[in-house]
Amino acid sequence: MREALKDKQRIVLKIGSSSIIHEETGGADYRKLETLVRIICDLKNQGKDVILVSSGAIGVGFEMLGLRHKPKTVSLKQACAAIGQGQLMMIYQKLFMEYNHMAAQVLLTFDAITDPERRRNAENTLNELLQQGVIPVVNENDTVATEEIEFGDNDTMSAIVAHLIKADLLILLTDIDGFYTDDPHKNPEAKKLTLVETIDDTMKNMAKDAVTNYGTGGMSTKIAAARIATDSGADMAIMDAENLTQIYDLMEGKSVGTLFLAHENDDFDTVDFIVHKGYQK
Predict the structure, then answer these.
(1) So where does ATP get bound (predicted)?
(2) Is the pTM above the cut of 0.85?
(3) 127 annotated to bind ligand
(4) CATH number of the structural domain spanning residue 197
């Protein structure tokens, strides 16, 4: 089943705040960012379409403001996002240009997904950027959104993007190397699942939110992302962001991370799933 990953042509890569921010200082981890960009450019050079969904704007913003702790209030989070988003995008554009590729910023909110006209516009923009050979860098528009900051996450956002552009693979890069039967940080007996064919209630019960210091999502958001992606016809992999070069192993069909197999479901309503907060259930 993993051998088929070699032929994936349209890929969405998501990386979270905890994976590109130094936990001790809140500053950007340039080594990881450079490695990630180099891999994406290499995939582009192989003829694949790639979209990057990146968190980190709030983290970069509060580091630039000299704050010692993650902001708690919505207004301060929005202020940090306003400062950090431009800085983060500047970093990405500079790195992509070093490898002769162009990146474009795309900021989305849930209303851009749930409103038919805005959803169509977002879909057209993303597809046009891909057609022009540009790498879209997608994030939630945290500077104007409130519900997204409180309850949203880029796991769900990346799955929605995969749905919009009809991606055939979604890769979630996170601070754990796959989906476990329990939190491996707390339970040494937890076992990693390497392949998931069906997402059932047992798996959802396993997904307990172990929120990292700088991230906003836990395993439940990744299961929700898997439901959206796989029902939309895309395989999804959860992988360790500490070992970014394993993306090559994944694309070569090797057994890394946890792979959720696609099972396109015409009856699955992604918009209804989002509107009624199915990702929280």
Answers:
(1) 14, 174-175, 216-222
(2) yes
(3) no
(4) 3.40.1160.10
